[in-house]
Amino acid sequence: MELSGKKFIILVEEMVNDQEFWYPFYRLQEAGAKVTVVGSGSADRYTGKAGTQIEVNAAADQISLDEYDGVVIPGGYAPDLMRRYPAMLHLVKRLYEKGKVVAAICHAGWVLISAGILPNRSVTSFFAIKDDMINAGARWTDEEVVIDGNLVTSRTPADLPAFMRAVIQAAK
Q1: Is 107 assigned a catalytic role?
Q2: How many Cβ atoms from other residues are within 10 Å of residue 84's Cβ?
Q3: pLDDT level of residue 143 (50, 70, 90 thresholds)
Q4: Can you tell me the distance from the alpha carbon of 71 to that of 61, in angstroms, rounded to the nearest whole number?
């Protein structure tokens, strides 16, 4: 398996895009990675936009980052909540600084902005946050997936296959 022995975090909060959570969750497991669901600490279970219930394994401030090879940040309305928690931003920023895979899809670019990791990076996102990402110093393009070093970004659920191929390739 491509990611045997690798460990990934998937962040979650209320109103996460269900597809952008579950597709990476199962695709990473299928590739052999161990997946840890990490929340802000505000609850033990979150509800996605489509109503699915997602249980967390740990809160962001309980994670030993040295154990992980990357993080996937799904979109929906959740990123606007995630970025309000310093522990979530610290987790993303530290993994990025350590050269680990940081993958964000759709509105998850908001977390990257608040973590302060976008200056001079090439990215994509849902078009509605394009200006936010540019104002944070990023070079934004409208592509299904953009890879810039250890940063992998994508636009919408329709791009999930390309997004996850890029995440898995980056983590090898």
Answers
A1: yes
A2: 13
A3: very high
A4: 14
Which tokens sit at 68? Answer: 């992980």
- Identify residue 123 by its one-letter amino acid code: V
Question: CA-to-CA distance for 69 and 77, rounded, in angstroms?
Answer: 25
Among 6, 107, 121, 155, which one carries the catalytic annotation? 107
Answer CATH for 7-171 from 3.30.310.50, 3.30.565.10, 3.40.50.880, 3.40.50.300: 3.40.50.880
Distant-in-sequence, close-in-space partners of 132: CB < 8 Å, separation ≥ 6: 109, 110, 113
Whether 54 and 21 have beta carbons less than 8 Å apart is answered as yes
Q: Is the pTM of this model over 0.85?
A: yes
pLDDT tens track for 89-103: 999 999 999 999 999
Q: Which residues pair with 11 in a beta bridge?
A: 38
For residue 20, pLDDT over 90 is answered with yes
Instruction: Kindly state the tokens that stand for 53.
Output: 């219930």
Sorted by where each begins, the domain ranges of the chain are 7-171
pLDDT digits (tens, 9 = 90+) for 37-69: 999 999 999 999 999 999 999 999 999 999 999
Q: Which residue has the tokens 């219930």?
A: 53
